[in-house]
Write a structure and sequence with these properties.
With 283 residues, this protein is α/β, with parallel strands linked by helices. It contains twelve helices and nine strands. The strands form two sheets. The chain has a seven-stranded parallel sheet. Strands 4-5 form a two-stranded antiparallel sheet. α1 runs parallel beside α10 and α9 packs parallel to α11. The radius of gyration is 18 Å and the shape is globular. The two termini are 12 Å apart.
Amino acid sequence: MIVNADDFGLSAEVNAGILRAHRDGILRSASLMVAEPYARAAAELARDNPALDVGLHAVVCRGRSMLDGSRLGAALRAPGEFIDSPVGAGMRYFFDRSMRTAMTDELRAQIERHLELVGYLNHIDGHLNFHVHPLFADILVKLAVEYKVPCIRLPRERVMTTLRLRQDHAPRKLIESIIFRTLSRRTSRMMAERGLISSDALFGLHQSGHLSEDYIVGVIERIRDGTTELYFHPAGDIGGVPPAVEAQLEVEILTSARVRETIERNGIELITFAELAKGEFAA
């Protein structure tokens, strides 16, 4: 099982939550938002904690860009800031194919900044899972081959497992499942043709922002053979404006003795994307 935290570098609170979850808990991987204000601080934390495998959290919506408005135009709502609406952004990117060159340049710049900050890159995923949008899947699969990045996340969660554990927001979860499984199927075909890999299963999509210790324990007890990614959005209270209660709870889940005991009792090995790519784990 790969346990990953998204949004590394977004804030000091996110960085603190990820660091605690890694040092005191089960977190082994994180995904870095390279254009955010605390990205460099996150990279410094990663250098001090080399067992944390840091990948790229590619951003094309609701976050900061590397390139300026003269290059990205309609993709930005203000200088250096992508538009906030996922639906609006998704439609714009799908229908305005003239943006392909600019967005290729932007994602290349994000990869280059990641390599500058971290020094390696083993996995790519996307903020709001935009990396499987048809435009960005095409771009990122090609860039992953070019930069020799072995792993890309496929957000294909087993929705019925999630619904058995938590029935809240069922219509939204079912719609998400249809959308993201369709997009993941297309992305998976392109990845397979180029020798790129992903986990066999994933949890973290449908219950995002509504996690509980009971839910995570239930997921772990239902994990099948193969490799499963669990991804989180933790953040810690460091004395300033406290982050969302849900994000603080995720730190507690990741450091929970009950969660760790469930992993051990079920004979699950914690690995990273680097180990997945190299096959450095028990069969």
